[in-house]
Amino acid sequence: MVDKQARRIAEFIEPLRVEPGSHVDLAKDFDPRYKARVKKRDGAELLRTGVGLLAEYQAKLAAQDSYGVLFCLQAIDAGGKDGTIRHVMSGVNPQGVHVSSFKVPSAEELDHDYLWRYAQRLPARGDIAIFNRSHYEEVLVVRVHPENLDRQRLPEEAKGRDVWTHRYRAINDWERYLCENGFKVVKIFLNLSEEEQRTRFLKRIDLPEKNWKFSAADVRERERWDDYQRAFSEMLSATSTPWAPWYVVPADRKWFARICAAAVLVHTLMEIDPRYPTVGKKARKELRAVRRQLEDEAPAGAARDPYAAEHRPGRGKERP
Ligand code: AMP
Ligand code: MG
Predict the structure, then answer these.
(1) Which residues contact 117 (CB under 8 A, 6 or more apart)?
(2) What is the DSSP annotation of 77-139?
(3) CATH class of the domain at 2-272
(4) What is the largest CA-CA distance in the chain?
(5) Is the CB of residue 141 below 6 angstroms from any atom belonging to ligand 1?
(6) What residues does each domain of the chain span?
(7) Does ligand 1 have an atom closer than 6 angstroms to the CB of 105?
(8) What pLDDT sits at residue 161?
(9) Which residue numbers delimit the Polyphosphate kinase-2-related domain (predicted)?
(10) Are 294 and 311 in contact (CB under 8 A)?
């Protein structure tokens, strides 16, 4: 049953996966409106299943306390990162999950190497860390607007023509290091069409409760659409690796994007296959001894073991 479900999920996300080593042309290779023949009316139920599985696996991940998961979300403005996080993580225990959003770097952050601020937000063992924007901004917005690179004050020899190739390599190495230490890196790119972005911007202007999400700067970024698409394509080609592949999630339909994001995350957790720790013979013997002691402490008239009395009739009877 679990195997069958795991196989179905693996098949579902397979078309979204960027084959390591392949050359990606985003516009040609991935359709923002793809929906794998799923009907919208089945969408809510599918997402519920995904959210339920995530909660179950996250509880085991935390209990096992051995692996950690880093979930990176990248997208163009209005791509749906916030909503995806809100919906997909709605069922999990907040104790085991933390979200970090990365904005324009602070002076302190600019004073360090470019991976420094991301390294501070990595998950602990047993945890899921979500990056709302991630270290990939370092080869996206920084590339499209090179003045960001100037602000990083790199020494002359570190900012030649090879700077992006070096960054891809460093990022791949960093993720490999994390993976080899038990931290799985899951990467999702929400792929939005230009027309759907226009529609979402208009909605942000039309609806007062969405105004805060919109800034005139977003429209200026939109003018650089083609540059961003090129930077995305190159990033996907260079940094989809066997240890941390990219998944390109069609983002024009929010409901479908959320199902895909949940499926990719569940798939990763199923691969980790975390288990609740079990106790050995000696520890179980100790538990039985403590149990007898606790039963003996029952006050007169109370069940020796109220839990057993309720759940296993005939056991844990009353103390005279
Ligand atoms: P938002 O996610 O809408 O709150 O916007 C955050 C802004 O921070 C976006 O415009 C990003 O392009 C920008 N940003 C994120 N990371 C970097 C970075 N490393 N360098 C420069 N700008 C960044
Ligand atoms: Mg924004």
Answers:
(1) 102, 105, 109
(2) TTSSHHHHHHHHTTTS-GGGEEEEE--SPPHHHHTS-TTHHHHTTPPPTT-EEEEES-GGGGG
(3) alpha beta
(4) 85
(5) yes
(6) 2-272, 281-311
(7) yes
(8) 83
(9) 40-270
(10) no
Ligand 1: does its nearest atom lie under 6 Å from the Cβ of 175?
A: no
CA of 98 to the centre of ligand 1 (A): 19
Beta bridge partners of 217: none
Instruction: Work out the angle at residue 258's Cα, subtended by the Cα atoms of residues 191 and 15, and round it to the nearest 5 degrees.
Output: 55
Residue 86 amino acid letter: R
Retrieve residue 291's tokens: 């149990």
- What the block records as the tokens of 285 is 């013997």
Look at ligand 1, atom 21, and give the residue with the nearest C-alpha: 104
How far does residue 210's CA lie from ligand 2's centre (Å)?
11
CA 180 to chain centre: 18
Nearest to 121 by CA among 97, 153, 104: 97
> Structure tokens of 119?
């390294």
Structure tokens at 282: 């000696």
Cβ within 8 Å of residue 179, ≥6 positions away: 185, 243, 244
Whole-model pTM? 0.94
Atom 3 (ligand 1) nearest CA: 77
Rounded distance from Cα 141 to ligand 1 centre (Å): 7
**Tens digit of pLDDT per residue, the chain (320 long)?**
679 999 999 999 999 999 999 999 999 999 999 999 999 999 999 999 999 999 999 999 999 999 999 999 999 999 999 999 999 999 999 999 999 999 999 999 999 999 999 999 999 999 999 999 999 999 999 999 999 999 999 998 888 889 999 999 999 999 999 999 999 999 999 999 999 999 999 999 999 999 999 999 999 999 999 999 999 999 999 999 999 999 999 999 999 999 999 999 999 999 999 999 998 999 999 999 999 999 999 999 999 999 998 888 777 777 77
For residue 117, give the ligand nearest its CA. Answer: 1
